[in-house]
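step: validate -> pass
step: tokenize input -> pass
step: predict -> running
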Amino acid sequence: MSRPRRWLADLGLGARLAVAGREGLLRTGLTALGVGLGVAVLLLAVAIPGILDGRHARTDARDDLRYGDPPPKSDTTVLSLPIMSAYHDRQVSGRFLRAEGAHPVLPPGVTALPPDGSILVSPGLQQLFDSPEGAVLRERFPQPIAGTIGKEGLSGPNELYFYGTRADLTADEDGVMRLQRYGSSSKGDPLSPVLLLLVVVIFVALLMPVAMFVAAATRFGGEQRDRRLAAVRLVGADTWMTRRIAAGEAVVSAALGVLAGAALFLLGRQFAERFELAGISVYASDIRPTPALAALIVVAVPLAALAMTLLAMRRVVVEPLGVVRKAVSRARRRIWWRLLLPLAGLGLLVPQMRDKAVRVDLLPTAFGIILLLLGVATLLPWLCERIVARLGTGGGVAWQIAIRRLQLGGDGALRAVNAVAVAAAGTIALQMIFAAAEGQNTRISQQDVTQAQAVMSAPLRGHALADVDAMLRASPGVTAVHSYRQSYAHLDDEHAFEVVVADCATLRLLADLPGCADGDAFAVDPASFANPEMAGDNATGSAGRQVDLGDGTVWTVPSHLKSAREHRDPSGMDHDGILLTPSVAPPDAEGRRVYALISVDLSNPDAVEHLRNAAMRIGPSADMSVLRSTDVDKTFASIRRGLFAGATVVLVLVGLSLLVGTLEQLRDRRRTLAALVAFGTRRSTMALSVLWQTLVPVALGLVVAAVLGLGLGAALLRIVSMPISLDWPGVGVVSAISAAVVLLVTVASLPPLFRLMRPEGLRFE
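step: predict -> pass
step: emit ->
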């Protein structure tokens, strides 16, 4: 037989051994499950560009925000009033429309405008309206529902969006736009160096543990494989033939794992539309992996299994009666080459540590992070071997069993724990960058939430100021309302100042007043205080003059203006014009705006929602905002939501990887477990030994992860010229989560452990 045919025959024998008998099928099934879980996550990761492209394409297609001169009225134009609202931290948005002709342009996902006074809603909004949780929101939009919006007009299946029609919309109404088409090709601003670095670290830190778990899963059943190969040697196979047989078995298991991962991915994609993670929902059709990257995964996973098997076989001498690896006097691991990976990673990152970072070089940064995280995986086995060898056999029986097991063959436990350690190191570095980025992208809003918790603004159209005030006060959960009317007075074409009308209690929130009674008028004008010669061009110098209120109304400014000092109101706005009490105010005029500073009892969970409902009744263009002490950049907030979603997926995978790895080790030692129980070892002792056997490598892994994670975080912060601050609370949180995962995995492995300790486990053929 020629050499290629002989090699193929050896590989084929390994493939048959992988699926031969009940043991072979079970072992291959565990390997395929482990590899499949990792492959499914990797396929999801390479589908992210398709998800983002699909969402952006649909939102760009419905974009109707226009700048510049409006188009002329025609048979196809429509008037559009954008509505931005919220419901319990979920965004609710849409448009009120009015056709100006017989053939109005239609937004994507809409086949015809609904009848006047009705609305079209997204499926997610329809579902919320129909549920008890959406009863308060339904009061805000009481219009009859004429249908649903198609997928083409929505960013995701759970988006809360609507289109409604109003016959009373006019082109001169505040916020109304005239449209002759929908769609744009908007391009977002480039990410700052810190946010770009954050995105790179997120992808590397989340995907590295997945890739390592896939590599570890290909080594499941290693000890049983060695025994089988010893039997093959007994019937005449040489060393290279046993390696080819092992390679064939590993490739078949990995290939089945790829198929299992693809099946899990396709199955999960069918249910993706039912879930929302970190405020993100996606259509199943958007979850499509990039073909080139998907092909790379399909090819790389079996090749990685082949490489891992051949690498592992180099340290194993398979003899007809056993394997040398089982001897206690095996060669000790060396550290020198294990230090090369983190040093090489630092070598890639150090040249980028400039005094002022203007950009982030993605390729060397990504490879530097990968090498540093791989350093965790290479240093952990060496550290675990040294520490475990010195622990001795003192302590309780459970401790002795666990330590002796780690001393004799802890590679299986370390392979599963490596993914946890790498994930912890990446998360620690990520926390450091995240904390720095949060400080850079979060600013103090200068809003005083102790005096008011919400602010509303609306055109004063069809309502008196007192009516607006009464409607807001009647909203459940509102404890106080301070409303004022705002307009602008024009001295000439170049000079104008703000005119505010409110009662004294409200005016005191807007400026420092010397005293106030009805009939008073105040000038808030710091420029005139500093330079009296400028009084002719500002509010103070306008006393007694006639001014234009902007809508043809001429009004004479009161001649006796008291001076008031400027300060920010609770919403963070400055007022530097004229403040008037009602008896000296100009007459109401259509088009002026009303503002209200509102105090809300936040112990009522629906208080803010009732307030938004009241604002909608005042006018569809009313804007109601909840005051916050800090503002977070929207791009940073989106990255944070994506991080939480990805971290959740990886955390679940890490837990499953530990569980599958633990079950594989228990199954491999079922006869030993059954023998220990037969000699009188208690089940609780065995359960505790399993916990120690997993917890000791995890604890050592977290030590290595903390050191390299903090070093990686410091290096990355130096790249973007950010101050280095060690995130000890973040290290503590990561350690606590890892310990919790280990505890949950141990609890989940108890039923199989007890089942394997039955006397039937002593049977052997």
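step: describe -> Residues 323-329, 528-537 have pLDDT under 50 and may be disordered.
step: cleanup -> pass
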